[in-house]
Design a protein that fits this description.
The protein is mainly alpha-helical. The chain has two domains: 43 residues; 93 residues, no CATH class. Helix content is 75%, strand content 0%. The protein has five helices and no strands. α2 packs antiparallel against α3.
C-alpha cells in the first residue's frame, strides 16, 4: 500500500509539473501573439528624413550662391531690369532656401544667426538684386491692375 500511495503521489506531482509547464508555454505563446498584433495595429511611424542637416545646408548654400553670383553680375553689369532667366533663377532660389530652412526647423537642426539665415536676411545682402526684383513685381502688379507702373 505504501508503494501504491507513493506511485499515486509521484503521478500527481508529474501531472502537476506538466500542467504548470503547459501553462507557462501557453502564456508565452499568448505574449508573442499579443506583441505581433500590437506591432501590426500600431500606426506606422513617420519615415525619418533621409537627408542629413548637412545635405540640406549644402542645398541651401547652392541656392544662395546663385543669388550671390547674380548680385555680382549686377554689380559688374548694371542695368534697369532683370532678364526672364534671372527672375526664374531668383524665384527658384527663394523657394529652395525657404524649403531648406523649413526642413532644418522641422528636423530641429536650425541654429540661427550667424549660421542659418532666414530669407529676409539673405535678401538684405543682395540690395541690387532685391531692388530690381521689386521693380519687376511692382510692374506685374500694376499690369494686373491696369495702372501704369510707378
Amino acid at each position: 500500500m505504501d508503494t501504491a500511495l507513493t506511485v499515486v503521489i509521484l503521478l500527481l506531482t508529474l501531472l502537476l509539473v506538466l500542467i504548470v509547464l503547459l501553462y507557462f508555454f501557453t502564456q508565452q505563446g499568448f505574449r508573442d501573439l499579443v506583441s505581433r498584433i500590437a506591432v501590426q495595429q500600431a500606426p506606422a511611424a513617420p519615415a525619418p528624413s533621409q537627408r542629413s542637416a548637412d545635405s540640406v545646408r549644402r542645398e541651401r548654400s547652392v541656392a544662395h550662391d546663385q543669388l550671390v553670383l547674380l548680385e555680382a553680375d549686377l554689380a559688374v553689369n548694371p542695368r534697369e531690369e532683370l532678364f526672364t532667366e534671372e527672375i526664374e533663377s531668383f524665384e527658384a532660389s527663394r523657394k529652395s532656401i525657404k524649403l531648406c530652412n523649413a526642413e532644418l526647423k522641422k528636423m530641429s537642426q536650425w541654429m540661427g544667426l550667424p549660421f542659418d539665415l532666414e530669407w529676409p536676411e539673405i535678401q538684405q545682402r543682395q540690395p541690387k538684386l532685391n531692388e530690381l526684383y521689386r521693380k519687376f513685381v511692382e510692374a506685374q502688379i500694376a499690369k494686373a491692375e491696369g495702372t501704369p507702373p510707378v
